[in-house]
Every structure is written in C-alpha cells, then in structure tokens.
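Tokens as discussed.
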C-alpha cells in the first residue's frame, strides 16, 4: 500500500488499495459537485473512476458523496446558480453577439447569436457556479464528512 501525505482529505483507490492524499485545494475541487469531475488520478493506476475511490475516513465513495452534496445544496442556491445566472448569461451573450459584424463570407449569421447564448449560459454554469454555490451555502465541501 503506497501512501502520499498532504493536508487534504485522503481517499483510497479500491482497485489497488492505494491511499491518496490531496492538497486541500484539490480536495475542495474533488468534493465540490458543481465542478465537472468524472474521475481522479491514482498514483499507481492512473485515471480512476470516482465510484472506485472511497474517503479514507468514512468509506463513502466519491461519486456518491458528490451526489449527496448536490442533493443537500439548498434549492434556492441551485436555482440562482444553475438557472437564473445562466439564463441572464444567455441573454447577455445574445445581446453582445448582435455587435459582432456579420461578414459576407459567413455562411450562417445565426451562429453568432446561438454561440452567444451558449457561451453566455456556460460561463456562469461551468465557471461561476462551482465558486458561488459554496459561498451561498456558507460551507466548504472539503470539510464536510
Ligand atoms: Zn489505483
């Protein structure tokens, strides 16, 4: 059993029984369900699925933990961060796209407003929500068992 020691919350990759400790900031990223994370890295095996890794202290697998954290997020915080801000971003993206000059070479001028809507919605959903939701909740996912 290999062991790495850092100040984050350690987890165990069940496939090889390796305990992995992360930096505290990496623990926050891994535990925060609003970051799009599909796996982690085991120093012995490489890419590891979240459901193959369990917290060393509780034994809960990381995929279940992240689902539980998402469920326990107050609905008003989810509504603000996952719907209201992305919708406002989509509207802003659409409005900004109207200032992009459409050239004659552009075969599909609709690509700008559609792109503006998607980018405007994605920035708050993928870039802001992972920071904003823990602030609104008043807690760090890395410190929750
Ligand atoms: Zn492993």
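Sequence:
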């Amino acid at each position: 059993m290999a062991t790495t020691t850092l100040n984050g919350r350690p987890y165990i990759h069940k496939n090889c029984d390796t305990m992995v400790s992360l930096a505290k900031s990496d623990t926050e990223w891994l535990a925060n369900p609003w970051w799009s994370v599909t796996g982690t890295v085991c120093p012995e095996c490489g890419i590891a699925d979240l459901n193959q890794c369990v917290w060393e202290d509780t034994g809960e697998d990381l995929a279940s933990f992240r689902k539980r954290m998402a469920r326990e997020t107050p609905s008003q915080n989810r509504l603000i961060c996952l719907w209201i801000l992305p919708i406002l971003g989509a509207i802003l993206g659409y409005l900004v796209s109207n200032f992009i000059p459409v050239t004659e070479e552009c075969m599909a001028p609709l690509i700008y407003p559609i792109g503006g809507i998607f980018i405007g919605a994605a920035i708050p959903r993928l870039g802001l929500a992972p920071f904003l939701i823990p602030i609104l909740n008043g807690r760090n996912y890395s410190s929750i068992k």
